[in-house]
Amino acid sequence: MMRIPELLAPAGSMEHLKVAINAGASSVYLSGKNYGARKFAENFTLDEIRDAVNIAHMHNVKVYVTVNTLIKESELENVINYLSKLYSIGVDAVLVQDLGLIELINKHLPDLKIHASTQMTCENQLKLDYLESKGIRRVVLPREMRKEEIKSLNTNMELEIFAHGALCYSYSGQCLMSSFKGGRSGNRGTCAQPCRQKYRIDGIKKEDYYLSPCDLSLFNQLKEISELNISCIKIEGRMRSKEYLAIVTSNYRKALNKLKSHKETESEEISLAFNRGFTKGQFNNESRRSIRAGHVGLKIGKVISNRKNQIAVKLYDYIQSIPEKGDGLLIVKNENDYGLEISQNPIVTTLNHFQKGKQKQIKDFTRKNKVLIVKKVWQNKKSDFDLNESDVYLTKRHALSKKAKEIENKGSSYVKSKLILTFSVKNKFPKLKGRLTLANKREVECEVIGNTPFEKPLKKSVDAETIKKQLSKVDNYPYQITQINVNYDGTLFIPISKINQIRRSLFENLEKATNELYSHDYKKITLEREETPVKESEANISFYTNNLNHLKDIENVKRVYLEIPPQDDSLDITSKADYNINYMVSFIKEAYEISRNKDYELIWKWPDIAHDKLIRVLNKVKGILNKMHYRIPIMNNCFTGEYGPYSMNITNNESIDSLENYKIITISPELRKRDYEEIIRYCKTPDKIELIVQGHVELMKTRYPLLYGKEPKSPYKNFLIDSNNNKHPLHKSISKEELTIFSDSELSLIDEIKYLKEIGFSNFAIDGRYKDDDYCRMVDIYSQALNNTIDKKELLKISPKNMTGNY
């Protein structure tokens, strides 16, 4: 069964919105000035959102507003009132990441449609089921989902996927790199894109864009997408240019329209709009690293000759975009690149002519073996490397900028509303009725009576045909007039300008009535918050580990979260996950036996990223352990566990309260001291919250490899090194498909522990994963600190490099 998905385009400003509508978007997503994941786009004020919604609805285009950052306790009331305003304006849905916000919307604005943002990292069926139980209408799946994984999902919610634009190296919502390295949080809309910088891997000399994937393009996969249960495809790029938006959206629209008649499309134009090279991404289990952080363009051929004043490029036979004067070229060889603008008309000749020294212009561009000869002019800077054998990319196309401008100024829409007009004369006054049917089948009716009566003609009457002709003009309105009924005998006279006036007046009323169809009354919402009196509860320590020796030696801890380490922790992520069930069962069984008589609770920590294949394996292991009478509680972030890790991104009490079945929830380490104070002040269940106080923080979780098999074979170590020479540990998940990048320094809140205990926190966690046996001593150091003795010297022996992070 084929399903043509909705085409969703980005709108970073009012001008972008108009371009997206003209280019054929079925819907747009935009953000207000706050709470959106692209804080540095121009974005919209509330009045602009109102205008945007009205313009879009007139053109049968839906508007989704992103409110997809994590919400702090102190912001909840402002945000829910902002959402109330959006609901009154008539937005079609809001994109949300924060679990607490979902609860507030369901309680106070039950008719506002919620789409779960990709930052929720909804990668498995358990999470889908949970979100569906919360009344969510649509889920934006992670960019890391593969075609077969999407196919096996079972839900009544709509599914949306990214089809085009930038790829993050990390799962969205699972990246703290920008936050911890530069104080700018991706989860709060201010990502500084540390992934676009160059890094080294310990043991490999070459610096490279290890964390910078090529851009995603599923343009050639639209037929495959139409055969899946996907309701909507999304183009990324609220920070990109109007030209990018016009070219990409219009090409996808054309391709989707052709797909309706089972035809497929090719386009070189898409490669000329901003891209870092293209990949099909995880959808087809493919990944490529970009060769540079900026625009690459369309690869058109190789340099075969480079003399002082000219460059000869052997063009690939399939290339249709032949460079012209005013276009831009990028010439790339290994680490070097050289860009120029073509300032004189280039010559296109055949390889045969070129080799004979003739520069004879050919007329037929479909010929094979073409050579492009570009004159270099004195304004071009000199290249500092030999250009021969370089790859050549077309980066800028003058003709394309012209096309983008035409789309911007076109002013027509992809789906027009159908309009039936009925004209009659009532007591000599003209009367015009209109019935407008929108694309969603909703109807509005309006009627206008003119204020100038018809008169007996002095010379010539106005006939019915003339009136019909005047009424058939649609001005700039996106209306398609399907029928005009004129009930008038043609014997009277009225100035034509008065007919035009009544038509315009009707159109204005129809526009107003269309806007009113969507809008609602605004209601101000007050949130009741009660301060919780601080009660002295006994402070305790939890310990994360994947080292069985820790279990033997550890004392004075209440809980141990045990993760199964991968059997092979080398950097290359296998594209095929293979699971050793026996290894997993015996690891947990051995841990259980060691811990049987200890006074801590042993909890099995599942990987934070768990696609359904892994969930099935973990459940199988759990089943085998249950049969052997090894019953063990689970820590996972599928919204269904008993213990929640900090990857759940919990930043407010509404989120904590919503996860009723959890006994312990670790709150996000992105929060600051004052945020912790706010949460504990109003928390109904302070015993349920845990804080991570010591250990390396997980900065990124990824499904992309760091090494692609083409790296030198020198023995590397599992460290990523940044430009300041900081070493970030790298470790693989048990699934062998995910890799985690940890912070170079350990988070250490030893100096704050006394204060945190005083204000009401009682659960503190230390992360001892991938640490040697004597890291257990950290527990004693924190136990002493809880009793007001801080042994900083001893702490530095075990962890020499520490930070307070965002605290």
Task: Give the tags.
807 residues, alpha/beta, TIM Barrel, Elongation Factor Tu (Ef-tu), domain 3, 14-stranded mixed sheet, 8-stranded parallel barrel, 22 helices, 35 strands, 27% helix, globular
Shape: globular
Structural class: alpha/beta
CATH architecture of the largest domain: Alpha-Beta Barrel
Poorly predicted runs: none
Could you say what the CATH topology of the largest domain is called? TIM Barrel
Main sheet, how many strands, which sense, barrel? 14 strands, mixed
- Structurally, how many domains make up the residues? 4
State the total count of DSSP E strands. 35
In what range is the share of β-strand residues?
Answer: 15-25%
Treating each run of at least 4 consecutive H or I residues as one helix, how many helices?
Answer: 22
Helix content: 25-40%
CATH class of the largest domain: Alpha Beta
Distance between the termini: 52 Å
Evaluate the radius of gyration: 31 Å
Report the mean per-residue pLDDT as an integer. Answer: 92
Describe this structure in words.
The structure is a single chain. With 807 residues, the chain is an alpha/beta fold. The protein has four domains: 6-167 and 214-268, Aldolase class I (TIM Barrel, Alpha-Beta Barrel), CATH 3.20.20.70; 298-320 and 322-396, Beta Barrel (Elongation Factor Tu (Ef-tu), domain 3); 419-518, no CATH class; 540-803, TIM Barrel. The strands form four sheets. Strands 8, 9, 24, 25, 26, 27, 28, 29, 30, 31, 32, 33, 34 and 35 form a 14-stranded mixed beta sheet that branches. Strand 21 (429-437) and strand 22 form a beta hairpin. Helix 1 packs across helix 12 (398-410). The longest helix is centred in the middle third of the chain and has 23 residues, at 496-518. The two termini are 52 Å apart. The model has no long low-confidence stretch (mean pLDDT 92).
